[in-house]
Design brief:
The protein is mostly helical and about 100 residues long. Helix content is about 45%, strand content about 0%. Pfam families: Whib.
Length: about 100
């Protein structure tokens, strides 16, 4: 479950980047896998979502948001939940040095 206490406040400037997100023009189902999707179907859908993220003007903002709130679902900023956990782990290790 997402830790809502880690979410930023409701200041409009913190959320305006979402208005410029490339994903706004696509179905949410492209970025969030169906319950029983597995294997190549899941990989293809995630790859298609990542391609949209790669040309998004706010990709960095999106990824930082997902990392900050520990978003457990969907492709955010071009990263799947598994990839974000790996990235977060690397950030945590670096911060501990």
């Amino acid at each position: 479950m997402t830790e809502t206490r880690r979410l930023p406040g409701t200041v409009t400037e913190q959320w305006d980047w979402q208005l410029r997100a490339a994903c706004r023009d696509y179905d949410d189902n492209l970025f969030f896998h169906p319950e029983h999707e597995r294997g190549q179907a899941r990989e293809r859908r995630a790859q298609e979502a990542k391609e949209i993220c790669a040309r998004c003007p706010v990709q960095r903002n999106c990824l930082l948001h997902a990392l900050n709130v520990d978003e457990p679902y969907g492709v955010w900023g071009g990263y799947t939940p598994h990839e974000r956990r790996q990235l977060q782990g690397a950030v945590d290790e670096f911060a501990a040095l």
